[in-house]
């Protein structure tokens, strides 16, 4: 089969080439998926630059790609959750990525059926952001009907899934962005929109119950300042801490390392009587199924951007790094 293989880690332009490789092995609980489309994400270029090495130690040569949509080609002897011919989608397991290929072997527990409302290219854009949103929302402690949540970067691909999923839990969603996107994110379920060109969210927001941070760095600290005492900030970019390491089941060495690395964020939150949490999205087919059902039921459109053939994987990765694309870039093997 053809696959996009990262030959070595390093900065852009990335050492990735489309090569003929042997078909994946299918274990008893694995599903062989004929990949019809694969979403391209910032995570893919972070892996290429070896920026997530402490979280997952990927070795090269490595078939790239973290999320896919396709059809079940074959199943292992112990597979019960899917059937041959079924349309499926997934965020691939952390220790078994490889979506940028004609075929992928995926643990059955990572897969979810594609709702009828979505085609393959649409479904290929949903898994990573939908699971990120669900796992971030699950970390918010003590959520009550009508509580407020600020979702930074709400006009991008994360917001397209996080906003409706948060609203479905009874949260009042606040987000910010360019005014040209206001009506779109309001249709997704945002109760309040802040135009960053005319207002600074840190000046106009106070006593927000929860924050989902997709920016990290100084912006994460500013977002702590808009949140009430007792609130929880969940960050996708702020870095792991000890609580994350325990939740993820890392061993003593990494728990100690992440406790030290996340001490600054933990202290900044604790000074305000708040909680800091970090999420690094993992595969979960049942959770993805719930998210996709909600999104399809609310007619939430998938944010499909430029669609490119697998042979143009280098261009796709360069476009991700450049930013500015409307919707998520999709590769079609």
UniProtKB/TrEMBL annotation:
InterPro entries: ADH-like_N, ER, GroES-like_sf, Lipid_raft_assoc_Zn_ADH, NAD(P)-bd_dom_sf. One of its GO terms (molecular function) is oxidoreductase activity. SMART domains: PKS_ER (SM00829). It comes from the Bacteria. Residues 11-331 form the Enoyl reductase (ER) domain. SUPFAM superfamilies: GroES-like, NAD(P)-binding Rossmann-fold domains. PANTHER family: PROTEIN AST1-RELATED. This is NADP-dependent oxidoreductase. It comes from Propionibacterium australiense. The lineage of its organism: Bacteria, Bacillati, Actinomycetota, Actinomycetes, Propionibacteriales.
């Amino acid at each position: 089969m053809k696959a996009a293989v990262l030959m070595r880690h390093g900065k852009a332009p990335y050492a990735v080439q489309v090569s003929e490789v042997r078909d994946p092995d299918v274990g008893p609980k694995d599903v062989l998926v004929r990949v019809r489309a694969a979403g391209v994400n910032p995570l893919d270029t972070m892996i290429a630059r070896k920026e997530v090495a402490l979280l997952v130690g990927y070795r090269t040569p490595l078939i790239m790609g973290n999320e896919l949509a396709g059809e079940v080609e074959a199943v292992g002897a112990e597979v019960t959750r899917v059937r041959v011919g079924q349309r499926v989608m997934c965020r691939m397991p952390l220790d078994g990525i490889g979506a940028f290929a004609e075929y992928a072997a995926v643990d059955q527990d990572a897969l979810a059926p594609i709702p009828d409302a979505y085609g393959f290219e649409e479904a290929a854009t949903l898994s990573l952001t939908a699971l990120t949103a669900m796992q971030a929302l699950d970390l918010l402690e003590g959520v009550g009907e009508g509580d407020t949540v600020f979702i930074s970067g709400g006009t991008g691909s994360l917001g397209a899934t996080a906003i409706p999923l948060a609203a479905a839990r009874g949260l009042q969603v606040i987000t910010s962005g360019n005014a040209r996107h206001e009506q779109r994110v309001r249709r997704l379920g945002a109760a309040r929109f802040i135009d960053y060109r005319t207002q600074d969210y840190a000046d106009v927001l106070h006593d927000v119950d929860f924050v989902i941070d997709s920016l990290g760095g100084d912006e994460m600290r500013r977002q702590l300042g808009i949140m009430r005492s007792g609130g929880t900030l969940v960050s996708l970019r702020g870095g792991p801490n000890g609580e994350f390491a325990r939740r993820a089941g890392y061993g003593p060495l990494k728990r100690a390392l992440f406790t030290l690395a996340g001490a600054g964020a933990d202290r900044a939150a604790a000074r305000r009587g708040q909680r800091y949490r970090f999420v690094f999205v993992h595969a979960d087919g049942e959770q993805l199924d719930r998210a996709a059902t909600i999104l399809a039921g609310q007619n939430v459109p998938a944010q499909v951007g430029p669609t490119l053939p697998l042979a143009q994987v280098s261009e796709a990765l360069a476009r991700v790094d450049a930013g500015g694309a409307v919707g998520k870039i999709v590769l079609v093997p």
